[in-house]
Amino acid sequence: MNRSLQISTTKDKVLGVVVTLGLIALFLFSTRSLELDFPKFIGRIVNAPEILGKFMTLNWSIIGEVFANMVASVFIAVAALAVGVVLSVILAFLAAENITPNKAVAAVIKGSIAVIRAVPALIWILMVVASYGFGNTGGMIGLVFPTTGYLVKSFTASIEDLGYDLIEAMRTTGANRLTIIVRALFPTLTGSFLSWTAIRLEG
Fold first, then answer.
1. What is the mean pLDDT of residues 164-183?
2. CA distances from 75 to 80, 129, 137 (A)
3. How far apart are CA 33 and CA 49, in angstroms?
4. Inter-residue contact 171 to 107 (CB < 8 Å)
5. Which residue in 66, 80, 104, 131 is deepest, having the highest Cβ count within 10 Å?
């Protein structure tokens, strides 16, 4: 028993060392591939106080404009969230394995959402701005992509967590898919959906 425990402990230590060395090698390879200039970065740290001083300087003459833009940013985020929630609810019920009308459709949606989630939100916004132009509309559309990607995955997981029992019970009564969603699944999932939406709004 003690020998087995010692062997297991040794394996864990070896695995830890291998993983640590692998992560270090990956870090070094990544920095080398990106051609990051750490000496230059360290050499310019002396300029940090001056830069921070400029950041802390307030131009009170434009404070009204700044405040208006901050409020506009909040409105854009809320509008993007509202559109994202509507799209996400629809796509989530199409993507969830236990209620989807077509397995291929579910696979396509999940694959597309995985791609959307893999691209940072800033990239989506820049792509939309590049094609649509600067403005509130472009900003809102750019935020819809990452919002939808986050919420579809979360909503789909919540739907699939319910399993098949409730759905099968409704089907035995003759209920169609839309009735099951409206009368059984959606009321059950409202709290979960609101929680995910609130988390996304905070983010």
1. 86
2. 9, 18, 11
3. 31
4. no
5. 80
